[in-house]
């Protein structure tokens, strides 16, 4: 029997059908749904500003059971990428996640951003900000730098 799972990423949602004859445990069904969803997102051409983003985690649940704590699962994106055989990308995302744990960004596209984080210098902070927020048109404000010991 097919079960429909919903996988929610940072700015996207995918519905995935999973056969319970192949994946008999709910956790394995959810992991397979997450893996197929990420694979689909990575292989999908997107238009305009709707580029799918892979965040730190994905939420996965069987359709209609999002409010059921027994059915709502959170899966780490690096684990899903490794399941897809994308080990290098998984490692890179883990590095970014570790780095970003110390950065706080506040702002709106087109209105500028304020960045708080552990940067070794103002130039590094500015280059990082411009690369991460190209829509800011250079209006990036580095509010605080926490220099490493």
In short:
By secondary structure, this protein is an alpha+beta fold. 33% of the residues lie in helices and 28% in strands. It folds into 2 domains: 2-99, no CATH class; 102-145, no CATH class.
Give a topology summary:
Elements: E1 2-8, E2 13-19, H1 26-42, E3 57-62, E4 73-76, H2 77-83, H3 87-100, E5 104-108, E6 112-117, H4 122-132, E7 140-145
Parallel strand pairs: 6-7
Antiparallel strand pairs: 1-2, 1-3, 3-4, 5-6
Helix pairs in contact: 2-3
3D structure, described in words:
The protein has 149 residues and is of the alpha+beta class. It has two domains: 98 residues, no CATH class; 44 residues, no CATH class. Helices cover 33% and strands 28% of the residues. It contains four helices and seven strands, in the order ββαββααββαβ. It has a four-stranded antiparallel β-sheet with strand order 2-1-3-4. Strand 1 and strand 2 form a beta hairpin. Helix 2 runs antiparallel to helix 3. The longest helix is centred in the first third of the chain and has 17 residues. It is elongated, with a radius of gyration of 18 Å.
